[in-house]
Amino acid sequence: MANRLSQIATRTGDNGTTGLGDNTRVSKDSLRVHAMGDVDELNSNIGVLLCEDMPGGVREVLVEVQHQLFNLGGELSIPGFELLKPEAVALLDEALETYNAQLPRLAEFILPAGSRAASLAHVCRTVARRAERAVVALDKVETLKEAPRLYLNRLSDLLFVLSRVLNRMNGGDDVYWKSERMVRMAREDQKDQDSQP
Q1: Rg of the chain, C-alpha, whole Å
Q2: Model confidence over 129-138: pLDDT tens digits?
Q3: What is the mean pLDDT of residues 143-169?
Q4: Pairing of strands 25-27, 17-19
Q5: Cobalamin adenosyltransferase-like domain location, by residue (predicted)?
Q6: Contact residues for 174 (Cβ-Cβ < 8 A; gap 6+)
Q7: Is 12 inside a domain boundary?
Q8: What is the Cα–Cα distance from 161 to 128, expressed in whole angstroms?
């Protein structure tokens, strides 16, 4: 395999532009570069998440996600090119179904908290949502394939589900938001218990 990165510091970006995969140059604040950067940030955050202990199956899913995000970044760097395939979206759907089936139904909104691994999964989820927004914004001015938008949307859902899986890994649970409704329900439950003989 040829050495693709023989020179890292090219200084060609000193003027505020960057080169795309088709050798065109665009401003570093263009919508395309924002989308590429958000996808790169997401992939880097998943790399941090992968430093944590987790079930083997979850690790395999996330490693595959990193490869697909690299494909997505490549696709975004070459206008009109396709690297991310619909099959990648289907794999996320399968993982979503598998892991969500293991979880209890949510009684209330949860906080992005709990174990370190779960909290990092939530960080990844929020970056995935930002990357999705960047891709949607780019798609409004330059037509993109459907897979990048679908992939990021499904991935953020999967990361939410995986955060719940990771919180339960060592006997933990979701961290529920203390909403007024939950507080009221807890008071009513306590009243019912107090009124019983």
Answers
A1: 21
A2: 999 999 999 9
A3: 97
A4: antiparallel
A5: 8-165
A6: 106, 110, 114, 164, 167
A7: no
A8: 14
Dist CA 36 CA 70 (whole Å): 10
For residue 67, what is the domain's CATH number? Answer: 1.20.1200.10
Torsion angle (degrees, nearest 10) of CA 187, 170, 105, 95? 160
The answer to whether position 82 is within a domain reads yes
Is residue 1 assigned to a domain?
A: no
Domain around 108: 17-192
- In the DSSP assignment, the letter for residue 104 is P
User: Is there a domain that residue 152 lies in?
Assistant: yes
pLDDT at 1: 43
What is d(CA 94, CA 65) in angstroms, rounded to the nearest whole number? 13
Q: What is the pLDDT of residue 184?
A: 75
Q: Domain total for the chain?
A: 1
Q: Is residue 93 helix, strand or coil?
A: helix
More confident: 187 or 86: 86
**How far is the C-alpha of 114 from the C-alpha of 176, rounded, in Å?**
10
Q: Which residue has the tokens 């139904």?
A: 105
pLDDT in tens, 58-101: 999 999 999 999 999 999 999 989 999 999 999 999 999 999 99
Four-point Cα dihedral 166, 169, 172, 175, nearest 10: 10
38 against 107, higher pLDDT:
38
Taking alpha carbons only, the member of 105, 109, 106, 155 closest to residue 130 is: 155
